Amino acid sequence: MKPNRDDSDAYKKRTEDALFRAVMSLNDVHECRNFFKDLCTPAELQAFVDRWQVVKLLQQDLPYRRIHDLTGVSVTTIGRVARCLADGFGGYEAALEHSSSTHHTRESSATQ
Hints:
By secondary structure, the chain is mostly helical. It has helices at about 10-25, 30-40, 40-60, 65-70, 75-85, 90-110. The protein has 2 domains: about 10-40; about 50-110, no CATH class. The chain is built from 6 helices and no strands. The termini are far apart. The relative contact order is 0.08.
């Protein structure tokens, strides 16, 4: 967040909701990839990808050091992701649940 922003909580929610609605409006992996490539720097996008890999590896109960060895993600970041899985807002769990149930349907439409 920018340090001099004095946005109200309501304004922050409206602008976040607009972004999230834009993501939800995308039709397939190809559109989503292009949106995130436009939205993020390569480093920001890689950070998202890294964290998502970590989520899946944590679900397999791998030790932090093994996850680090497999991904190159710092043990500190792995710990942050683990804390979000345990005490976060439930976003990782929802995405895991939805992506496992829609993976084949949406992935196949992206390759056609």
